Amino acid sequence: MSQTASNRATPGSRISVAPMMAWTTPAQRYFMRRITRSALLYTEMVTTGALIHGDTARFLAFNADEHPVALQLGGSDPATMAECARLAADAGFDEVNINVGCPSDRVQNGAFGACLMAEPERVADCVSAMRATVAIPVTVKTRIGIDDQDSYTFLRHFTACMMAAGADHLTVHARKAWLSGLSPKENRDIPPLDYPRVHRLKGEFADLPMSINGGFTDLDAAAAQLDHVDGVMIGREAYRNPYVMAAVDRRFFGAEAQPPTRAQIVADMRDFIGRHLAGGGALKDITRHMLGLYHGRPGGRGWRRVLSEQGHRSDADLSVLDRALARVEPTHALEDTAA
Fold it and tell me: What would be one Pfam family of this protein (predicted)?
């Protein structure tokens, strides 16, 4: 195996939006693309079994407008992971990512997710098999440790295995995971963040592109991290307050265009929502991802309340969106600029 990392890079990896189960759906990614054209987006984690034996077309579905977009996989068998990587590449994804960070019981029972940190050679075999199969980047998302295996030496060995296998990028959630005793939700908050450990890791593995994840709520904090690492992955804040991402393209990717206003984003979503409704979908499938668009703005609670209370009705249509919009626009449209 090569002793140096590949120089293949996924467009948008400088700033990315974390994969989140039940949240980073095709509808959410389409909405996020109305806000940032450049940040890398991820699917929800898809298990290899579901992808191969389940509704393959549904799991691989994405809008062409979503690029750059990565498929995140959950699995641990090298041959199966390689086959799923091929499916991802054939479907047009820009990257395939291995989940070595999720601490839930379900993924532990399936021998993937954070528990795989204890088997770095196995993960490395998956990376090698996938890289031998596809030309798109093969990346890994992990934690800084699990349970009592949380020393820097442990993390360093895991990283060395990924680099030797040819991983194109490593994203490190700067908390360890407790595989027993804490719920997945608690694992997102209770283990303390340790950014300096990730910075040290990047310093030692300078040739391995590396992103940091965990606790970032504003772009100033993300920008400060780029003095130490190659990229920043933003998770829950991008969902809770999606308009925080509106300044990303100009600030981190050199875009010249002004960011869209919130009103423009809503207008851009109308056709997408209309097509979804015409195809038999429910309004809430999409508007649930839009609840935080006016976070912190005058009328924002009214916007959220209308969408929450009326969007779930079986007959909900675009008039619900209009009623929600009336709570916040046009009074504040002219003030609507990205930070």
Answer: Dus
